[in-house]
Amino acid sequence: EFAKSKSLAQQRQYLPIFSVRDELLQVVRENQVVVVVGETGSGKTTQLTQYLHEDGYTVGGIVGCTQPRRVAAMSVAKRVSEEMETELGDKVGYAIRFEDVTGPNTIIKYMTDGVLLRETLKDADLDKYRVIIMDEAHERSLNTDVLFGILKKVVARRRDFKLIVTSATLNAQKFSNFFGSVPIFHIPGRTFPVNIMYSKTPCEDYVEAAVKQAMAIHITSPPGDILIFMTGQEEIEATCYALAERMEHLISSTSKNVPKLSILPIYSQLPADLQAKIFQKAEDGARKCIVATNIAETSLTVDGIFYVIDTGYGKMKVYNPRMGMDALQVFPVSRAAADQRAGRAGRTGPGTCYRLFTESAYQNEMLPNPVPEIQRTNLGNVVLLLKSLKVENLLDFDFMDPPPQENILNSMYQLWVLGALNNVGALTEIGWKMVEFPLDPTLAKMLLMGEKLECINEVLTIVSMLSVPSVFFRPKDRAEESDAAREKFFVPESDHLTLLNVYLQWKNNNYRGDWCNDHFLHVKGLRKAREVRSQLLDILKTLKIPLTTCGLDWEVVRKAICSAYFHNAARLKGVGEYVNCRNGMPCHLHPSSALYGLGYTPDHVVYHELILTTKEYMQCVTAVEPQWLAELGPMFFSVKDSDTSLIEHRKRQKEEKTAMEEEME
Ligand code: ADP
Ligand code: MG
Questions:
Q1: What is the mean pLDDT of residues 433-453?
Q2: Which pLDDT belongs to residue 645?
Q3: Binding-site residues, ligand 1, Cβ < 6 A
Q4: Atom number in ligand 1 closest to CA 303
């Protein structure tokens, strides 16, 4: 209602942060670093940047604001550009990996923390920024945690630089202490009580339980929108599908007028235009039911939510020592996160939160706070980056919470295997080049191997295709048709080459959109891949790496692919069943793989990643020759046998059962 009847300017003045605008600006004037705490929706993300602009901080520099999530960076920049009545990308812009929507006029720049981190590589003092706002710092994303250490140095070197750290109530004191007891500014909250309802018994199928609960609310409870927290895209789609089905069933089985329900998914891979829908008012008074990942916990604020349904679960990237890699796994959320979720129901009026878990689970099983990402994920990129910033010993870096030594060593080991670090842990020539690419070390390695093997043109396409969401479109009601379309692109020995093949055919068809539709391909995904490709190509140019091609002789491309994935090499054990060569971990061919069901099961394969669903499935697989693994392996980069300190160390580490492993069990 409110959003419709009031102008944007009026809406701005109604936000809680507006009542403390002048005091806040005063504190910023008097201090170099300030921690700002406020409830979700108080106006931190959209208003702080504008206040700073109004107070003169965009003269001789710009205001930057980091976000842990891409979706938030995009959506908030759009909102602020509307509030400032300027085109997105003009005065207000955003930058996320492979997408820079800023220009020469940009004075307020939203970006992911990863983008700012990479900017510190080019400009250690971040001279173009007068102010940086580290937003959503309580999320403790990996990049934010590294930025903390880096920005602390910038603060010390540049007296004219201001740093604002924003946080939900969580962690504020810790942030203040880290920067030397800087002031904590509280934005007075305006929240309403939320009634918490627990499940009486542990819930077996939370998708089903959530659907039931949402339908019950819709039919029996007063107006107010519903927000459901799920763990990821698949579940969200399943929930939306089930809700739509129940609604349809209800409408056709009763003569009464069933109130309308507008079912809206939101997750990071959802196209931007569909994401924007959650902020719009539903048609003719329908009740909105938003089904979200934890993105709606704090980074996006939707008004009008009166009911929250919380599954109590979320997906987290966790380094799994057994698999030797990060995996997205479903975990119970922390108590702090559950409270945040519940709070979403009390923004507009008193609300209700239905927890699909028991009170005893909340009290006894959930951790009080989430574990910072830096303590649970692979640090490959961080290690590369810090090494290139001349941080020789990572254990000396000023981390707010240092990562476990085991994590650092694992990541260093993986970089050593890829040839990015030498035996004493310093960056090699390849390592230095890898830092230049905004890519995971594996993909950067593949690219550089493409240079060595003179097929970089082909590898570039594969890397670009792997950097975007899957381009294969598989609507539920046309599954067979789309599978058949997909099979036409198969290169039997490789999913990676299949991606290359798709891209080349699209190119041969003049990058046409209708051609994509005919072949069950996402045109947006392919266009994105093309954009990524051209950006990576620019980097190759600045590095003076020539664009070599192997034409259609793709065996050499498979070699380059092989060289990136030593840690993900597997050998055949049974029908469609493989084991990881390094750790014996079982892994299976996915039915969607080009290698599946073609009567062709190679003895050795490498894979891009492992997906844990009902089984451990290899995602994106390529057949390789065992001698390549030997030939291209770590020894290829003239690693001397004599200096094995790192390997020794790693062995010792492995023998001791680490705290992390125990925790995970
Ligand atoms: P905070 O960062 O303190 O959580 P925000 O600045 O994100 O708060 O949000 C302030 C207000 O702006 C919210 O009430 C929200 O409804 C509105 N808002 C934020 N982003 C958008 C958007 N993309 N579209 C519409 N409204 C938005
Ligand atoms: Mg915010």
A1: 94
A2: 40
A3: 15, 38, 40-47, 75-76, 78-79, 279, 301, 303
A4: 16
How far is the centre of ligand 2, averaged over its atoms, from the C-alpha of 27 (Å)? Answer: 20
Nearest ligand to the C-alpha atom of residue 38: 1
Q: Which of 66, 79, 164, 186 to mutate to test the pocket of ligand 1 (most atoms within 8 A of CB)?
A: 79
Query: Of all atoms in ligand 1, which is nearest to the CA of residue 299?
Result: 4
DSSP for residue 394: G
Residue 635 has pLDDT above 60, yes or no: no
The number of beta carbons lying within 10 Å of the beta carbon of residue 650 is 16
Q: Measured between alpha carbons, how far is residue 189 from residues 39, 152, 200, 306 in Å?
A: 6, 29, 32, 17
Q: How many CA atoms lie within 13 A of 611 on its CB side?
A: 13
3-class SS letters over 245-313: HHHHHHHHHCCCCCCCEEEEEECCCCCHHHHHHHHCCCHHHCEEEEEECHHHCCCCCCCCEEEEEECCE
- If you measure from the C-alpha of residue 357 to the centroid of ligand 2, how many angstroms do you get, rounded to a whole number? 27
Q: What is the ipTM of this complex?
A: 0.98
Beta-carbon-side half-sphere exposure of residue 571 (alpha carbons within 13 Å):
8
Instruction: Please name the residue whose Cα sits nearest to atom 14 of ligand 1.
Output: 41
pLDDT at 19: 95
- Answer with the residue of higher pLDDT: 120 or 283: 120
At 132-188, the pLDDT tens digits run 999 989 888 999 999 999 999 999 999 999 999 998 776 789 999 999 999 999 998
- DSSP letters, 66-93, are EES-HHHHHHHHHHHHHHTT--BTTTEE
Whose structure tokens read 């790496």?
Answer: 545
| Distance of alpha carbon 93 from alpha carbon 89, whole angstroms | 4
Residue 331, C-beta contacts closer than 8 angstroms, at least 6 positions apart: 313, 314, 315, 316, 318
pLDDT at 323: 60
For helices 380-388 and 142-157, the axis angle rounded to 10 degrees is 20
pLDDT exceeds 90 at position 31? yes
- Per-residue model confidence (pLDDT) at position 16: 92
pTM (2 d.p.) = 0.85
- The number of the ligand nearest the C-alpha atom of 299 reads 2
Mean pLDDT over the full length of the chain = 89
Cβ atoms of 293 and 231 closer than 8 Å: yes
Q: Quote the CA–CA distance of 306 and 310 in Å, as a whole number.
A: 13
Residues near ion ligand 2 (CB < 5 Å) are 44-45
Q: Which ligand is nearest to the CA of 76?
A: 1
Percent of the chain scored above 70 by pLDDT?
A: 93
Q: Which of residues 634 and 616 earns the better pLDDT score?
A: 616
Sign for the CA dihedral angle at 13, 17, 22, 25 comes to negative
Q: Which residue out of 36, 46, 75, 305 has the highest number of ligand 1 atoms within 8 Å of its CB and is therefore the one to mutate?
A: 46
Please give, one letter per residue, the 3-state secondary structure of 322-354. CCCEEEEEEEECCHHHHHHHHHHHHCCCCEEEE
